[in-house]
Amino acid sequence: MIDSHIHLGSIPNQGKNWGSFKEYKRIANKIGIEKYCVVPIGLPKNFSDNSTPDNESVLKENNKAVIPVYWFNVFDLPKEIDKRYKAIKFHPDIGNVSIDDKRIIDFTNEINLPIFVHTNENKEYSNLEKVSNLAKKINVPVIAVHSGSVTKTFFTIDNYTFPKNVYFETSGIQYAIILKKIYEKFGAKRIIFGSDYPFGDPRVSLAMIESLNPSKNEYKLITEKNIIKILKL
User: What are the 10-residue block averages of pLDDT along the chain, 233 residues in total?
Assistant: First the structure.
């Protein structure tokens, strides 16, 4: 299996660091996750001063299981990125920037790598309509991290038209019924297993996938084959 979305680092809170890459690797080894797409942890400072998380920390990991993903920030756009990165990620909460902002479109087209985008259906700038708008203006796969996340998604997803380059990731989804609706509308070929560790846990995401009662082939698509195709691994 391949976990398409984890963070390298811990969550600092009240003098304690929650989660660690060491802990994640132990969990992954136990449940059979062989590779993981890794972005740096987004710290509170990054969201308060619109700064970019530490992408270099991911490349420093000497681990063949790591698939590096570059977290980009429209307030600090690089002219180029290291060729070891297999995808890019955008989090609209840094600066409250809309997913379909022209800067996102232009940078994605320039870099020409699949893009992961954080989504929250309760926020106008990061809802799934903005994902649809972005996907229609670029030529690479778009992975909707959290698939809208909140209950509202169950009702609003019917209002949007998604091109075929949009995929839905499994972490941070509030209720199983949201993923079930995505599965019924788009099928297993458009769903990507991700955990969002340390905020989430791969065991929780896998349980959510299992609630779909997928066939063996569908389970393989969601947990491995789709992301292999998207990232050309």
Answer: 97 94 97 98 92 95 96 95 98 97 98 98 98 98 98 98 98 98 98 98 98 98 98 97
CA pair distance 102, 105, nearest whole angstrom = 5
- Cα(209)–Cα(6) distance, rounded to whole angstroms? 17
Angle, helix 128-135 to helix 102-111, in steps of 10 degrees? 50
Could you tell me what percentage of the chain is helix, strand and coil, using 3-state DSSP and rounding each to the nearest 5? Answer: 40, 20, 40
The Cα 134–Cα 206 span in angstroms is 28
Model pTM score: 0.97
Q: Read off the CATH number of the domain in which 226 is found.
A: 3.20.20.140
DSSP class of residue 223?
I
Domains contained in the chain, number:
1
Q: Which domain holds residue 10?
A: 2-231
Chain centre to alpha carbon of residue 113: 14
Q: Which of 58, 61, 185, 168 is CA-nearest to residue 70?
A: 58
3-class secondary-structure state, position 48: helix
- Residue 225 is classified by DSSP as I
Q: What interhelical angle do 21-31 and 202-210 show, nearest 10?
A: 40
Helix (H, G, I), strand (E, B) or coil at 219: helix
DSSP string, 52-115: PP-THHHHT---TTEEEEEEE-TTS--S---TT--EEEE-TTTTT--TT-HHHHHHHHHH-S-E
